[in-house]
Write a structure and sequence with these properties.
The chain is an alpha+beta fold. About 25% of the residues lie in helices and about 25% in strands. The chain has a single domain, classed as tt1808, chain A (Alpha-Beta Complex), CATH 3.90.1570. The longest helix is centred in the N-terminal third of the chain and has 15 residues. InterPro entries: Nuclease_put_TT1808, Restrct_endonuc-II-like, Uma2.
Length: about 200
């Protein structure tokens, strides 16, 4: 009970977090650290379902020795330990947490109403600076369709927008993969029209 009372006070007072500060938090806490800012995400069931579907689609042609996984902490530096919705990374050192960001081929963030600006700007800068070659933002909050925006590292070390679509998305970068965005839009409709169970 005492720890639970101290935690909100600590969160309110601290403004510039480092990975060393995370040691003082409960080990079962789900968090991200972006530019020294502690984020405590609380995803919806639909959000997590989209992440699982994307991970399954990305797993089909995954390069040997790599895996597409959801909700893994990535070690970057003292002020950044993001927890992307989906990451495709080498399996090496995958038994530890956080896993080093080196070896990540692709990071995918699924937008929620509270994460739009963070996913589009702050996280993009962090992942680009860490050298992740491909970054996707999947937005199920963009009107009627689920929208995927693809970014790739440019010559200046920043992400450049390659495409944005709500149709079936096929690419060869970072490896051959197809993402069925209309199927994710249908999934969203299923959630929208599900009957309450109370």
């Amino acid at each position: 009970m005492t720890a639970a009372l101290k935690l909100p006070s600590l969160l309110d007072e601290k403004q510039d977090w480092t990975v060393d500060d995370l040691a003082s938090l409960p080990k079962d806490l789900r968090y991200e650290l972006i530019d020294g800012r502690l984020i405590l995400p609380s995803p919806t069931m639909f959000h997590q379902d989209v992440c699982v579907q994307l991970s399954n689609m990305l797993s089909l042609n995954c390069p040997p020795g790599h895996r597409a996984v959801i909700d893994v902490s990535l070690a970057i530096d003292r002020r950044n330990e993001p927890r992307p919705d989906v990451v495709v990374r080498r399996m090496a050192r995958g038994l530890r947490s956080p896993v080093p960001i080196e070896g990540a081929l692709l990071v995918v963030e699924v937008v929620s109403p509270t994460s739009q600006a963070r996913d589009a700007r702050a996280k993009a800068k962090v992942y680009a600076a860490a050298g992740v070659p491909s970054y996707w933002v999947v937005d199920p909050t963009a009107g009627g369709d689920v929208l995927l925006t693809e970014f790739r590292i440019g010559d200046d070390g920043r992400y450049e927008r390659v495409t944005s679509t709500s149709k079936v998305f096929t690419t060869d970068v970072p490896y051959p993969v197809t993402v069925d965005l209309p199927a994710l839009t249908e999934l969203r409709a299923e959630y929208d029209h599900a009957e309450p169970d109370w």
